[in-house]
Design a protein that fits this description.
Elements (H helix, E strand, L loop, with lengths): L8 H24 L10 H16 L18 H11 L5 H4 L6 H11 L2 H12 L5 E4 L15 E5 L2 E12 L6 E7 L6 H4 E7 L5 E7 L11 E12 L3 E2 L5 H37 L1 E2 L2 E2 L4 H31 L6 H25 L1 H4 L6 H11 L6 H14 L13 H11 L1 H10 L1
Parallel strand pairs: 1-4
Antiparallel strand pairs: 2-3, 3-7, 4-5, 5-8, 6-7, 9-10
Helix pairs in contact: 1-3, 3-8, 3-9, 5-6, 5-8, 8-9, 8-10, 9-10, 10-12, 10-13
Bound molecules: flavin-adenine dinucleotide.
Length: 433
Amino acid sequence: MAWDFETDPEYQEILDWADEFVREEVEPLDLVWPHQQFVPLDGERRRAVDPLKEQVRRRGLWATHLGPELGGQGFGQLKLALLNEILGRSQWAPIIFGCQAPDTGNAEIIAHYGTEDQKQRYLRPLLDGELFSCYSMTEPHAGADPTLFTTRAVRDGDDWVITGRKFFSSNAATAAFLIVMVVTNPDVSPYQGMSMFLVPTDTPGVNIVRNIGLYGEHAGEGSHALIHYDNVRVPAEALLGGEGQAFAIAQTRLGGGRIHHAMRTIGLSRKALDMMCERALSRQTQGSRLSDKQFVQGYIADSYAQLLQFRLMVLYTAWEIDKYNDYKRVRKDIAAVKVVMPTVLHDIAWRAMQVHGALGVTNEMPFLGMVTGAAVMGLADGPTEVHKMTVAKQVLRDHQPSADTWPTEWIPRKREAAQAKYAQYLENEVGNL
Ligand SMILES: Cc1cc2nc3c(=O)[nH]c(=O)nc-3n(C[C@H](O)[C@H](O)[C@H](O)COP(=O)(O)OP(=O)(O)OC[C@H]3O[C@@H](n4cnc5c(N)ncnc54)[C@H](O)[C@@H]3O)c2cc1C
């Protein structure tokens, strides 16, 4: 009987350390340098941040998302999930632990598909936390359907020349390189005709037109770039994996990325629930505490149950990834986790905000940021609708249409069959009357 919901005491100790470290040392960075985590370190920030990274390294918790064969610690997804739910409390924590999106997914595909030279040039410094990367796939006219992408790379001697536009390329402004998905052969199906390239951000022709911000961010503060690739010339060695492999590579990348977001979302949702409970116990109105009101108890119970369901789902999916070592095989459950994730964060953050009254909607509390974050989760890495379709298609694969007009579970036919099966006893029953 192998089902087991316990954490090894040894690993629990490590998690306890990480929990205290994140609360005491890392969460304050979110307040001192908010939204600065993807800005390359300058003198002041480096002095504060490097010693924290060093502590994480000494504990063996640096870059735990990759296996040892790929240059990481080889924790596996289940152990990573337990760690990531702690890191999810803080914007800076993934950076301090060397496992921030989108760099984790980008590192994963370079590790899987990169040449030795590409690993030396990009993966090593990425794993060392010395540079940032950007995944440049979505285009202004098409996101959810990658078969519509038109950015082209054309072969010219030993080089490729890239031309086109990409939208919402997160962190491009501070990234050292971009992973760009382009059409290399328009004459075959997009599934065979697209490829990925590793492009240093300072290559001539990479033109960051503007950095788009999310709601609430001031103009110019955003980190999602509209990029024009104007005849960007890269050598043949810039191709990642083989020509025409972009879809296979994208699947590897997004599978890991989605489940890691979900792990961190557990931590953020739990933070909102903790805040809701504290407020419910602290605030008095109309003769009793908020925690005595049935409406508020309902918020707390619903939130707790939603979080528990989601957590078990994420941990189970992480366990499946470790077991099968194949994102494709676990695709249905990764997509299901992606579908559920925005709703869980949204609902819990919204209730926590409501329980805090007016204070809840101010910029002195983090709830509206969480609610916006939930909306983002319903789009980034693909919209919820598309993931629902993936889940449904995978579920339907395990089912068959009924053999005739009537459903297999149609009671009259089943009853008739059951009566035939137990006919001898039914006859006795009649005989005993
Ligand atoms: C914060 C953030 C960060 C991002 N970072 C990156 C990044 O780093 N790199 C990158 O390349 N992209 C990034 N993206 C882009 C993201 O991947 C796309 O937004 C997403 O794939 C949806 O594409 P779209 O925005 O063009 O929406 P569209 O494709 O235009 O879809 C719009 C809406 O139509 C509906 N819809 C779409 N398809 C279907 C369907 N098949 N069935 C039913 N309804 C459907 C959905 O409601 C969907 O939200 C980011 C997005 C956000 C919000």
